[in-house]
Sequence to fold (404 residues):
Amino acid sequence: MKTFARRMAAVIAWAMITTSDAGARDFAPDATNLPAYTLPDPLKAADGKAETTAEGWTKSRRAEVLELFRTHVFGRVPPAAAAAGAVKSEVVGVDPGAIDGTATLKRLKFTATHGGKSLVFTASLFIPNAAPKPVPAFILICNRGATNIDPSRVLRSDFWPAEEILARGYATAAYQVGEIDPDRKDGYTEGVRALFDDGAPAPDAWATLSAWAWGASRILDHLETDPAIAKGKVAVIGHSRGGKTALWSAAQDERFGLACVNESGCGGANLLRRRFEGRESVARINKNFPYWFNANFKRYDNREDDLPVDHHMLSALVAPRWVHVGSAEEDLWADPRGEFLGLVHAAPVYALLGKKGLGSREMPPIGVPLRGDGLAYHIRAGKHNLGLEDWRAYLDTADRAFRP
Ligand code: GTR
Fold:
């Protein structure tokens, strides 16, 4: 009873201050006159009833919010693509002495088959040799060139610092999003959506980010068959468009224990209703990347307030599992403060599920990660990128989440 009262007090305290951030300190110097906005309440169901129990959220409202994101933003995966057996995974190469004998490298091949056609995509998996098994793992959604995830390690990039991840006792897998669905306006026929769609895509059909998220789940399917990998202790990580995908992956697939959402901006962790001047708007993202989101999402160009969701609800879908959002000081296009506030406003769902959430409504200083219970945030100096400082912050959160 005491716990229930405490949770309710947290929810009520939050609800009273939720509706506008216009008066709050803004991160960017030019954002002084931000229009006020009102966020949808993640706990309020379509019939207007507010959820007051963890069970109510888990058994009913959560599914409702997930459906809203499928319908209005990311689209839904067709049943044939989600069906067991739609994808076959194979280990096509093993090197037990990779990276100077410190790791085992497994080359993975995935074959998706439908209607007599198939599509192949690949991933590389490193498992640390010395660490006691099973180990937790990170799946990197790679939206950059293949040289960033070179399994031979001749080319090394801080976008995927495999050596450091392994030294911390984690396994790590990486895949190239373009192998699943090309990151191009005219790439539809070459990707997995064309393979599984029957006829022209419906307005709520899966779009490219959903296809990439589907790929992360197929890789997780494989990791779950590997006895060296700890079940429930797999993080999904992505940067920018990959960050949007990482959050959507973890929102849908409850097997992910942590989402590391780097500089994801519009369509990721930030708040669409926050009309911060330097940001990417819904109209802009739909114009430049119409294939990332479904056709319904185009209805919200310059009409963000009409969306039945905002993206604090996307982070809330991961509760009580962990979400760590990362921003960069100079990455105003992604609206760092909007990314932070997305987590602040996800907190009532965490509170209902018995987690403290971020534990603060104040942005932490540059370079000092803020870790609460279930939610974490950092902002580092510099530009839009995923690098070592970000990875170290995410690894520390994974230690908290998976090795408390
Ligand atoms: C930008 C896009 C952003 C972000 C970024 C990236 O051009 O406007 O939404 O995703 O690309 O993926 O690096």
